[in-house]
Amino acid sequence: MFRQTEIINQPSTIPPSKEEGEYLTINVGPQHPATHGVLHLVITLSGETIINIEPHLGYIHRSIEKMCESLSYRQFIYVTSRMDYLSSHINNHACALVVEKGLQVEVPQRAQYIRVIMDELTRIASHSLWWGAMAMDLGAFTPFFHAFREREAINEIMEETCGARLTMNYMVPGGVMVDLHPNFQQKTKALIQAYYNRLDEWDELVTGNIIFQNRMKGVGMLSAENAISYGCTGPVARGSGVSCDVRKIYPYEIYNQLQFDEILETGCDSLARYNVRLKEIRQSLKIVEQLIDNIPEGEFQAKTKAVLKLPKGEFYQRVETARGELGVYIVSEGGTTPYRIKFRSPGFSNLSALNHMVKGSKIGDLIAAMGTLDLVIPDIDR
Amino acid sequence: MSASVIIFYIIAAFILVTAILSVTTVKIFRSAIWLLFSLIGVAALYFWMNVPFIASVQIIVYVGGIVVLIIFSIFLTQKAGDAMPKPVRSRAIWSALAVIFGIAFTCNIIKQYKFIEPGNKNFDVHINDIGIQMLSTTDYGFVLPFEVVSILLLAAMVGCIVIAMKNKTEQK
Amino acid sequence: MTNEELKIKLTELNPAATFEEGGEWLNLFIDAADLLSFTKTIKENSELYFDYLFCLTCVDWKTHLTMVYHFSSTKHRHNIVVKVKLDRTNPEIETLSFLWRTAEFHEREVYELFGVKFLNHPDLRRLILTDDFEGWPLRKDFEDPINMIKL
Amino acid sequence: MISLEKIATLIDGWLHQHFNDVITLLIECVLVGVGAIALFALLGLGLVWMERKVAALMQIRMGPNRVGPKGIFQTSADTLKLIMKEGLTPDGADKLLFNLAPVLVIIVAMLILAPIAFAKNFQIWDINIGVLYVSAVSSMSVIGILMAGWSSGNKYALLGAMRSGAQIVSYELSAGISVLTIVVLTGSLQISEIVQSQQTGWWIFKGHIPAIIAFVIFIIAATAETNRAPFDLAEAESELTAGFHTEYSGMKFALFFLAEYINIFIVCAIGATLFLGGWMPLHIGNVQAFNHAMDYIPSSIWFLGKTLFLIFVIMWFRWTFPRLRVDQLLNLEWKYLLPISLVNLLVMTVIAILGWHL
Question: Using CA atoms, how far apart are residues C110 and C127, in angstroms rounded to an integer?
């Protein structure tokens, strides 16, 4: 079934061994519809009640951190698109920012605007996909198709400008790779209008449904203290009332000039996390609305050397992805490749809280709670 | 032999075979399933006798109720799929004796009973009559046994709840 | 608090700490033996209140390993980087998983990629790699001729 | 005008002319069996196609549209694929019961078909306890699911079977009681008599508010008994991958799939018979012209139309609602539906005794 594990200390998270038959152990994953990827959870059950959850990771571990050690500062950004593939723009953005921080390059205004617009569109697409998948986890299929219709529009916009739909690799140190497509502004404006209407429709279809609310209320409780202690970020922490939006607290690019709210909910449960994400879509739309008409003319890329060399030292950059705080930590020895690179991925920390969140509840609650964590497995495994 | 008699023998053979299988199989879950088929066979026999009401009640009570209960309790016990250990020899001897005694006893009673040809008496009981009979308080009315059976079922239900509650407190 | 204020405050708490200049945030080196008590203090001190361990990793310097802890405060919004030098042959350090729950997973990751043993860790097992995997992949001297990672 | 009743009497008469009674009976049995199987196949193919089209309608897409006009042969192609597939049996399974379970489920579904009145005077077996027979036989279908779940030797399947068992046994209560409210009104368990009693108006219209309540409860309980969303916990694919039929493949899986659709058809047919007047055409008071026009539509069309309408409602549920949790499911039954239907039955009894429904 699953691998024998090397136990150094007697783990406290495993319940005291009882007679066989008292507990049922089931494997959710690595191939399971609710894990949305190759996540493997070993669940100990008593009846339908969850006693313990133990994640087994690494089914798609590609050792990106080690690969990056032999890639140049221009190259390693492309690998990061494959981490959290649903917010690939934002991953690229983080890497571009950390290299720019090391080189002390001034990014042109136009590039900054484009980057922020792209980030927010990515966030909208990611949250839309999550919304559909979340509803499907709870047994409602129709929202999934509705979500994909909207996401498709964003993907088309991305395809025109970036040449790719999922792993964009659009942001490079110093700016963006190519200029915007002529259709970009007009199409994005049409998209925003459509989205506002769709969001109302989504609320009618899912949010207001009594079954849905009962499934989400009081499920997967995560208090503010525990959210901080488990290192949760993004909508997961904000659903517990922890203010942690990097765009507000440690603003990068032009975020400090923009009008938007950090969404905080105090419900601490799955419903709160759900509401945070849906409201965040509206905030992102607001940001794009502010920027789309005011993109300044000028260069889209700063002049940089062909071969980048970061000075000796350590550089850390955090950005807010759709899932939470992504940190890129680069240790440079002054060469053309990083000496050590570490990605602090939001999914990894969020997943660690799962056991705490669902212990003692039913299997159905596990699905509802895991859905609101919005796990992307390559982001966790790296 | 008319078609009706042939059907009777088929049903009877079905009941007997499944009954024997249910006591000889070594897997407890299979045993329950054979018992289920045996009970369905009995219901079929009632249908054959043209008393569909009794047949339906047989299915509802035994198949839908009791066998499901048995299956549930098998699920909740351990290792339902493993073969059961062979019974001890002394127990086998005693049960064989009991079976022989039972057969002899039944044969004896059947022998003493004088069977009367039913003739062409129409055996079509309307369902309303059954209902009235069931709740009548006059002679040959069944309201007392009916109520007594209800109390028995109620007692069984209370017992089930008590057992379930006890398990729960033990877990805590 | 600014980096300068933090430096004064932290020197008070741990006079043995050495500071590294440069970088965005305050970097300080402490002894492995002090780690648990020091981090407990900076977490509970109301002026510092570093309640959020947002990054935990390790760097292989070929002569020694360095554990790197990034702390942040959700109340005061200041950050520090705490570093601990470890022996390369037998790296051992106290776990922080009882102070910050997130450390449990991050330490398991560091354990299997760098071979750092975390004392008193509740469940120190491999998280990502197979259990019969040999070697510590993120160390600089790791060579795997079959699955080449270096390009 | 050709009606199903006439065809049936025609065949019966022709057989009696040419053969003796026993052979006629045998041939008729075979004919009925073949007819039932053909109906099964047609219903399975048709309802699956309908489900896909309904789903597509709700999900802003086309649905099947390549195989045949409007994709009506898509399900036939899928069935062909399932037949060609290898029927795997897991190593840890109890092989006999594993193979028996889908057959049992199908047989039970087939048995319930007997007392249903498809058209005026067109019934396989007009048993005098029709409704009781249906609820008795349908209680056997849970055994098939329990057998499938247990014999697969799979923990997901076992959990699914346990859920399904608890669910069907509970919801049978309120389904039975809501059926009883109509039985109280008609004073008969016989399906033909129940349909006949609605000649002056369907029970949903003339049975006062309790009949409407009973109808709503019946639809909810029927959805739950057929393991359809939002009550599809037995096969909840995001929790238990596929529940009790996780290990089934090929034709054995197809049998479960078919049985699900047959069961939907049957519960909807029962609902249509009890509450919507079965094959009775819609009549409005004394508007003779309208009533005659309605009478002109064949009774089988009326029956099928009502049944398909109810099937559409159940499909509509599936494609809009999220799934309930297992404890919420049982709470809904034991804390809400059962007490409401008990009180409803009491009110209905009072109405029937006082004769307000006439």
Answer: 10
